[in-house]
Structures are given as structure tokens and as C-alpha cells.
């Protein structure tokens, strides 16, 4: 199933030649010209390939980092000075970033580049003869552009609106409320030309129901973006998805499988997902690379064709086990504050976390062999080089709890440090890939469970209940498929927030949620205590001003 999307863009190299050529004083010895490509329906769809390459390029990288590392959901700490990376992760965690932060710069480039690629592709397709394939393809990629502008709207607020490829003149920043209006209009205008089919034929491309889902997300946050609530509009957009009958909730027995390396078009909760293929260039899915490390770099083997979870972990030492290509990078962990939301022992979503003592499949404790000094860098005995064997136990990260000092972002460079921090393995590590550190797990952008939670929240915030559903019934419907604990008898906004934490962790929505629920200025983790409200927006990077001096910087960053 993974090859479906990449088959669609199999002509990518040809498209790239077509869309980026320049006039050269050499003869053209190729049959690939605008007269012959794109012409057929398949070629027109293939011509949109660069858009999807740009979409997936850094979604699981800089975009995810900016949405998660700035919240209590995750921390990428330093270990003995490793992964300091110019303080980019420290600044994101502590809300001390500047307009020169590398992560902020990468986020701006990711979204603005995606917009540019869409503009260029629309310019290629717009002069083709009228056809259903042309109409649908242009609607699809303009919907991707609406997503890109939603990302810009959500993260940077006032941004330039530029929708015409080749147009001369620099675009100044447009007020956030006007960008909101553009995204809303863009989605509504293109929605009728999008497919109403969900499944293999449309997987990885926007459908009408993704457009409605993105509208729901836009309306749910309208109070933040424009100062005017739009909760009934959010509910109406959610109802379009719900009433389609095309989507449903996965039961607890298959919840975790939604995120396996074998996920794809068969996932009935995926309204829109980004397909990843570890062997394909142009965007990498790297979640597990940053979730595991050293002794936690666990190799998961499969039973037959279906991932079996913790079936046969093999300790990933630095060499000698055939896993050199899959060596994890700096490990992300969650905070005590975020993990506190996982307080129901009967909830299947607890299985996404590695915490406590770790065992082999047969129940035998995993033992790690090192030295006494290797285990504890502060060991003072004369026998520090002696062998030391200990059971692998993952300890939670304690707020401001580094052994290097309460203000330290460095946890140390020993086994105690490496085993600190509860890890998330929602996107099951894909060690069937022996070529590189990338993964085959597709990443959902919006799932059906998010639709139910958005509708429930909108009702609690003052919207009108519809389709016979209440906020309580919607939340209990979701929980019935996630936990065997008793249904809730009442639901509050705090309950909705906690449910969103449990359901959508590691899915790039937590920053958005924390801001909407007024929790972004809180205190957590390794020294996050900055309460500046202007940091609900990122600064426009210095690099953006170097190419467009008509931009206006966001307040607080001058």
C-alpha cells in the first residue's frame, strides 16, 4: 500500500525538469516538452508530485519540533554536551527563542517553500485544456496551499499573501485576520472540486472531508486568530465529516496499529495523512530516530507480516549488531506534567510510552553491561573501570531535576542520564529498514477522533449541539474505544484538554491546543518558566527579512 502515493509521483523527475527549466543556448534533445507533458489524467496528477514532496519534506522534522518541543509534550535535552546544536532545542523548550533560532527559521522555510511550490505547479497546470483531472488536481494542491497558510497563520500570525508564481514585487505582511479570511475562502472555493471518495484512490491527497476538517480547525481557533468565536461553524464543518459515514474510530485492539510502519489507506480514522517511504528521498519520517537512544534503541522484529509490538527487542549497542544504519539520534522525552494525563491504567493509549523496568519478550529483565563510571559519571571509587551490570529501568524526567544542577538543560553523559525520560513509541520504530534511519510510518495530519474532540470542545465553548450528540456523548464515544474504564458522567473543558493530550500526543497539535486552552505560559520540564504571551507567535526569521524587507516583525521580537 505504501507504493500507491509514490506511484502517483513516479514522474517527479520529469516534472521537475518541466517546471524548473531555463532558456539555454543548447539544443533540447528530449521529448519532454509542454506540448506532450502533462496531457493525460495520470500525467496531470503526476505533475502535482512536487507539491507532495514539499509537504512531506519537513513535516515530521522542523514542523513537528516547533509544535511539540515548545510545549510540555516533549523535551530534547542535552547529554554531556551532545545535541546542544546552538541551543536551538533549549530555546524552544524554555521559550527563549530569537528570530535567529534555527528551528524557527526551518519552520518558516518549510511553509513558505510549500506555498511557492504550489504556486509554481498551479502556473504549470492552469493553461492546460479543461478537464476533470485538471480541475480536481488544482483544487487539491490549492488545498495543500491552504494548509501551508494555516501553518503560517497559526505560527507566525501576520504573513505575506503570495499566490501567483512569477509575480514581481515583494509582498508585505498581511494582518492575521486577513490571512484567516484567505484560508477560509481558499478552502470553501476549492472544496466542491475535491473528491468525496476516501480510500486507496485518494490516499495522501486532500478530499472534501479534509477541507471540512481544516475548516473546523480554523473555526475552533478563530477566537485566538481573529478575536471572534466561530464555534457553530466549527460544529457544522465537523458534521460534514461525521455525516459522510466514511470514517470511524479504531477499537482499542487496533489503536496502536494506526501508527505502525505498515499503516496506510486502510486506516479508517485517517482523514488526511502524509505517506512516508524510507527508501524515497525528498522528506524523511524520523520520529523514532529522536525517540530512542543507546540502550533504548530497541530493535522490534515482526511476527509474520504484522508488527507484534515488543516481540523481540535487541539491545542497540553502537556497533556489532547490524544496526549501524539505524542508530538513533538525540532522544526526546516527555515531561512529568504531560505524562500525568495518562492516569487511567485501563487505557490502551498508555502503550505508546516506554517507562519503568524493561523486559524481554519472555519476561526476563533487560540487563545492561557497562562500567561503574559508565553507569554513574559521579562515581568516585577507584574501581570505576570495573564491569557493572544493571537492569534497564526508564526513570521519568523530574522538573528541574538534572543532576548537573536545577538550571541545567544537560542531563549528563552516563547510563543514568541516558535512561532518564519516558519515551514515546507511538510511531513504532521501523527496523525492517536497513538502509537508513528513516521510517515507513505514514503520519496523520487530521484523524476522525480529532473531529469528535473538536466538536465536543466547540459545544462546551458555547456552540449548539447537533445530530443528537452532546459533548459528553462525543467524548464517551471516543473513550469507549480506548479504555475499559467506566464512561464519564460529566465533561469539562479540562477533560477535553486531557483527552486531547492522550489521543493526539506526538501528532503536532499540542502547541495549538495549549495556546487555545491558555496553558502555553505555564511552567514545566527543564527550566521552562517564561510566561511571555507574545511567544504564542514565532518571530519572522532574520533570513526572511534578507529576501523581503517589506515584512513587519511580530511584537516582542524587534
Question: TL;DR of this structure?
Answer:
This protein has 558 residues and is mostly helical. The protein has helices at 3-8, 12-20, 41-47, 49-57, 59-68, 88-94, 102-125, 132-156, 176-190, 208-220, 222-226, 231-244, 336-339, 372-375, 415-418, 448-460, 471-479, 493-504, 510-516, 542-547, and strands at residues 75-76, 159-160, 173-174, 270-274, 332-333, 353-354, 356-357, 367-371, 387-391, 393-394, 423-424, 443-447. It has a domain at 3-250 and 260-278 and 449-547: Alpha Horseshoe (Serine Threonine Protein Phosphatase 5, Tetratricopeptide repeat), CATH 1.25.40.390.
How far is it from the N-terminal to the C-terminal residue, by CA? Answer: 49 Å
Can you name the CATH architecture of the domain at 3-250 and 260-278 and 449-547? Alpha Horseshoe
Q: If you average the pLDDT, what whole number results?
A: 87
| Major sheet description | 2 strands, antiparallel
Tell me, briefly, the overall form. globular
Number of strands: 12
Segments where pLDDT lies below 50 for 5+ residues? 3-32, 297-325
Portion in strands: 5-15%
**CATH topology of the domain at 3-250 and 260-278 and 449-547, what is it called?**
Serine Threonine Protein Phosphatase 5, Tetratricopeptide repeat
Structure class: mainly alpha
Query: How would you write the strand order of the largest sheet?
Result: 1-5
Number of helices: 20
Helix content: 25-40%
